[in-house]
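My current task is to audit a protein record that another person submitted. Alongside the sequence sits a line of tokens, each denoting a local backbone shape. Where you disagree with what is written, explain briefly why. This is what I was given:
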Amino acid sequence: MIFLCTGVKIYDVTNDYRAVNRKYIELFAFHYVQDYPEPEAIMDEALHKARIMEVPFIMREHEEGKSSISPIKLIYFMFKVSLAILFHRLITIKE
């Protein structure tokens, strides 16, 4: 969805580990989504012409416990984020 709206190809939109400069810290200080913010933050960065670069890193598997994202939450996440990205893009086109 982000690629279709911005032309920026991102492989992992759910990773919230990022480094940004002062411009984006100021942007995010005034607008940063509270639930599932990563894809929308990437959308903001792409629409503001940020240089976005993915850097691979190794993550270990959970040794115990289970994911907090149930199948219902996953469906909600996909719907909510897709709708938010499309809405954000439509607003940005009008500006």
The helical segments are 2-6, 22-30, 38-47, 71-94. The chain has four helices and no strands. Residues 2-94 form one domain.
